[in-house]
Design a protein that fits this description.
3-stranded antiparallel sheet, 40% strand, 11 strands, globular, OB fold (Dihydrolipoamide Acetyltransferase, E2P), 5-stranded mixed sheet, 2 helices, 168 residues, 15% helix, alpha+beta
Length: 168
């Protein structure tokens, strides 16, 4: 469970504000071309080539609502790359937009682990007078999903290296 003094990144995910602990964030990137293939998991928005390495981009809206259509990318969409230790390999989250960074919660309440997919929402924060769900990045993907993403990323890295587009 987060602590009130933690700082948070505020995301717009399908019209819903959600918070992510700043400690889980490595960088915020604009959306570029995403490679997507049909047999890949539906929650995977695709992979982007980030400095010669494949970066798995998870569609947060689709992860939290599996019946939802894929998020449409636009000028304001952001990719939030997770810091090392938050996910298996290079993983990022797709949000409609990043709204604010470094916010401090005024209060916290817990939610039942069964209240969201994989228990990804660990609580609610009171931020700027609004109740905002906070994401637990450690619960976003099942172990099987993490292993599948790592497997796909490895195959893409091999392809990037062979083409000369991979990291040195």
């Amino acid at each position: 469970m987060p602590f009130p003094q933690d700082r948070y990144l505020l995301l717009d995910v399908a019209g819903v504000d959600m918070a992510l602990p700043m400690g889980a964030v490595a960088e915020i990137l604009p959306v570029t071309r995403l490679e997507r293939q049909i047999p890949w998991p539906k929650v995977l928005a695709g992979f982007m080539n980030l400095r010669g390495r494949p970066l798995a981009v998870i569609d947060l809206a689709r992860l939290l609502d599996p019946g939802r259509a894929a998020t449409k990318l636009d000028l304001y969409s952001h990719v939030v790359r997770l810091a090392d230790g938050h996910g298996e390999g290079d993983v990022a989250l797709l949000a409609d937009r990043v709204k604010d960074a470094g916010l401090i919660a005024e209060g916290i309440s817990e939610v039942e682990e069964t209240a969201s997919a994989n228990g990804a929402v660990s609580g609610n924060l009171l931020i700027q007078g609004q109740l905002v769900p906070v994401l637990d990045v450690g619960r976003l993907l099942l172990l099987e999903e993490q292993a599948r993403l790592a497997e796909i990323a490895e195959a893409l890295q091999t392809r990037l290296d062979a083409s000369g587009d991979g990291a040195p």
